[in-house]
Amino acid sequence: MTISVDERRPLRNPNVLLRQEGDRGMAIDPDAESVHVMNATAVAIWVLCDGRTMPSEMVTAICDLSKLPWDVVEEDVRRILGQLEEANLITWRDPT
Amino acid sequence: MADPSVKVLLADGQSLFREAMRVVLEAQDDLSVVAEAADGMHALSEARVNEPDVALIDLQLPNSDGLRTTASLADTQPSCRTLVLSDVEDEELLVLALEAGASGFISKSSPMHELLSATRRVHSGETVVPPHMLGGLLGRLIARRRERDQAMRLLARLTSREREVLALLARGADNVGIAQALVISPETARTHVQNVLHKLDLHSRLEAAAFVMQSDLLDELEEARV
């Protein structure tokens, strides 16, 4: 059986600490001795990465709130999740 | 020529806060305070007369609290966008404010430049939420949608007649009331009720009513009846 990319769930790196100030957040990774500055949307998406929530659910919720078109939000969410993965702030889990 | 500035209604129970806000808002070239109100009822009447573009509504407003005032404004003045001001940053209050029709939510302890920015952003059509509350808010929206999707899956088990019965149960109807509404016998109504409870794995009429209300399905069920 193959698993669709959309069914995978992103999971926050549990060792990363988040500090929020104003409309920005800092993700501090003590293991990698690195700090990543994120905007409010990226912080919100990172917070939603609980290993259960699908990217499509994130897109739907953001669309509901912002009234922006699905394709615009989906592209943003995919890009941000890609950046979070690249920065080792999330990993991906298959549905159980 | 008409004044192009954004017309603002200011509703707050504390006169000192209101006056301070008015001074700051009036100092902006693009904003003008067209009305003030110290309570919810007054805010609604001022909105009817002055037709503001943006209403700044304190959540703890006397006489019709901020949430009710926001909901009434959304009904009666749909072109007016509401920015709710709150003493506390509480996610549940944030969700309730947005559900009541608010376009934004901001803490009263925010710096004044943030309040001015939020007023302008709300007027331009944005939804304004404190950045640090965004993740929690989205999490709640996702959880609610999951609950509703699950409820919809359960509803799919019901026949159209059983859905009608469920809607009437949610309205508090007994077997006789259901029978009268659907022009069936009370015995048939009773059988439908039992089938509904069994299919939804519920144990009482009260649970059935709570299921409909908590999942916000009454409109869905009643639309299907039309």
Describe the structure.
The complex is a heterodimer of chains A (96) and B (226). Chain A contains three helices and five strands. Chain A has helices at residues 40-48, 55-66, 70-86; strands at residues 9-12, 17-21, 24-29, 34-39, 90-93. In chain A, strands 2-3-4 form a three-stranded antiparallel β-sheet. In chain A, strands 1-5 form a two-stranded antiparallel sheet. In chain A, strand 2 (17-21) and strand 3 (24-29) form a beta hairpin. Chain B is an alpha/beta fold and 226 residues long. In chain B, 57% of the residues lie in helices and 12% in strands. Chain B has helices at 15-26, 40-50, 66-76, 91-100, 112-123, 134-155, 160-170, 175-182, 186-199, 205-214, 218-225; strands at residues 6-11, 31-37, 54-58, 81-86, 104-107. Chain B has a five-stranded parallel β-sheet, sandwiched between helices. In chain B, strand 4, helix 4 (91-100) and strand 5 form a beta-alpha-beta unit. In chain B, helix 7 (160-170) crosses helix 10 (205-214) and helix 7 packs across helix 11. Chain B starts with 5 loop residues before the first strand and ends with a helix.
Task: Itemize the secondary structure elements and their pairings.
The complex is a heterodimer of chains A (96) and B (226).
Chain A: E1 9-12, E2 17-21, E3 24-29, E4 34-39, H1 40-48, H2 55-66, H3 70-86, E5 90-93
Antiparallel strand pairs in A: 1-5, 2-3, 3-4
Helix pairs in contact in A: 2-3
Chain B: E1 6-11, H1 15-26, E2 31-37, H2 40-50, E3 54-58, H3 66-76, E4 81-86, H4 91-100, E5 104-107, H5 112-123, H6 134-155, H7 160-170, H8 175-182, H9 186-199, H10 205-214, H11 218-225
Parallel strand pairs in B: 1-2, 1-3, 3-4, 4-5
Helix pairs in contact in B: 2-3, 3-4, 4-6, 7-8, 7-9, 7-10, 7-11, 8-9
